[in-house]
């Protein structure tokens, strides 16, 4: 049984890919995936009210996991017949939008359907494909990077925890962050499975990072819950980060053979975000933000290609204009 947390800032990649690798290479092996609304290892301790950043998921969720999933697994294999007939599902996952557990006979779910969202140069997140002629652009300055969080106190700790569901309004207001969003949803939309960003970009520099964030935008009448940890935050119009990932552009084609960008050339940058199970509720919006700095979660890219960024000189850190073309897409898996 592989257990993980959707907000594991240390290793979200690990449990998801351990499960998938076992499925691929060890057919017939007992293999169960459990993903809850937890940070790294937080399913082992009960906090009463289960929160991450400002988001409240319910009460006693770790206790539910321990009693109904973990104990059942160990009782079967340590005290029971150990034949693999635990009665547990193949995948026991928490929907971080509906805030409830769901079960599946495989992951990604067999019923998942691929949907493509295009990044329109109007700022719309749409299912209408772009022609590749339109674009949005921004100036990226490594001396003025986009911070990964608005709560600077968290940067002093060993691991940043809260940013993975933090309100992204602070970032979306910046001129060096591109924002694409849908109209308010007319019905619930459940994203369940894999996410792939397929960007078409260009830059005036020779290197660049690309950060893609999937965000749940709450409606203006969203009430606060009773356990708000920060009384200065309002959930009305809250922009909850659901998933995010960064790609260092030099590694876009190979992690073994980095290569620079050619200034002005339209270039493919394709990379995976980690899986999600999140329902965007009726009245909410789906948002994508694209940026090129995320400091200090990732180090600054000079934007001038150098063999070793850690040995870059001060003069190597240069402003660059980045473009994201309207035939850029984010592919998601949708559950009906």
Q: What is the general shape?
A: globular
CATH topology of the largest domain: Jelly Rolls
From the alpha carbons, calculate the radius of gyration and give it in angstroms. Answer: 21 Å
Task: Spell the H/E element sequence.
Answer: EHEEEHEEEEEHEEEEEEEE
End-to-end span in angstroms?
Answer: 27 Å
Set down the secondary structure blueprint.
Elements: E1 2-5, H1 13-25, E2 33-36, E3 49-52, E4 55-59, H2 61-79, E5 91-95, E6 100-104, E7 113-119, E8 125-126, E9 135-140, H3 169-172, E10 177-181, E11 189-203, E12 209-217, E13 239-248, E14 267-280, E15 285-291, E16 320-325, E17 329-335
Parallel strand pairs: 1-2, 2-5
Antiparallel strand pairs: 3-4, 5-6, 7-8, 7-17, 9-16, 10-15, 11-14, 11-16, 11-17, 12-13, 12-15
Could you explain the architecture of this structure?
- The protein has two domains: 2-104, Rossmann fold, CATH 3.40.50; 113-335, Galactose-binding domain-like (Jelly Rolls, Sandwich).
- The chain is 11% helix and 34% strand.
- The protein has three helices and 17 strands.
- It has helices at residues 13-25, 61-79, 169-172; strands at residues 2-5, 33-36, 49-52, 55-59, 91-95, 100-104, 113-119, 125-126, 135-140, 177-181, 189-203, 209-217, 239-248, 267-280, 285-291, 320-325, 329-335.
- Helix 1 links the parallel strand 1 and strand 2 (33-36).
- The mean pLDDT is 97.
- It comes from Larkinella arboricola.
- This is Xaa-Pro dipeptidyl-peptidase C-terminal domain-containing protein.
């Amino acid at each position: 049984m592989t257990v993980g947390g959707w907000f594991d800032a240390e290793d979200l990649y690990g449990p998801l890919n351990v499960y998938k690798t076992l499925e691929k290479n060890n057919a017939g092996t007992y293999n169960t995936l459990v993903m809850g609304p937890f940070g790294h290892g937080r399913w082992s301790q009960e906090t009463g009210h289960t929160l991450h950043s400002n988001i409240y998921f319910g009460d006693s969720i770790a206790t539910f996991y321990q009693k109904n999933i973990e104990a059942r697994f160990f009782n079967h294999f340590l005290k029971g017949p150990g034949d693999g007939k635990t009665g547990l599902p193949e995948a026991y996952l928490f929907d971080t939008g509906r805030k409830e557990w769901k079960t599946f006979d495989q992951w990604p779910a067999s019923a998942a359907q691929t949907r493509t969202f295009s990044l329109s140069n109007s700022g719309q997140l749409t299912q209408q494909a772009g022609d590749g002629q339109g674009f949005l652009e921004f100036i990226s300055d490594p001396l003025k990077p986009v911070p990964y969080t608005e709560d600077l106190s968290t940067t002093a700790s060993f691991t940043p925890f809260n940013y993975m569901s933090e309100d992204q309004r602070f970032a979306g207001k910046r001129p060096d962050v591109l924002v694409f969003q849908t109209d308010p949803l007319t019905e619930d939309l459940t994203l369940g499975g894999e996410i792939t960003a397929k960007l078409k970009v260009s830059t005036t520099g020779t290197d660049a990072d690309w950060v893609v964030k999937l965000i749940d935008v709450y409606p203006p009448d969203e009430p606060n819950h009773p356990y708000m940890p920060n009384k200065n935050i309002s959930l009305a119009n809250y922009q909850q980060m659901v998933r995010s990932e960064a790609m260092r552009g030099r590694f876009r084609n190979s992690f073994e053979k980095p290569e620079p960008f050619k200034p002005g050339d339209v270039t493919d940058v394709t990379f995976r975000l980690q899986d999600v199970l999140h329902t965007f509720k009726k009245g909410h919006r789906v948002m994508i933000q694209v940026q090129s700095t995320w400091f200090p979660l990732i180090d600054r890219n000079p934007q001038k290609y150098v063999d070793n960024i850690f040995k870059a000189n001060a003069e190597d850190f240069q402003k660059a204009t980045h473009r994201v073309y309207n035939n850029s897409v984010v592919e998601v898996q949708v559950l009906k």
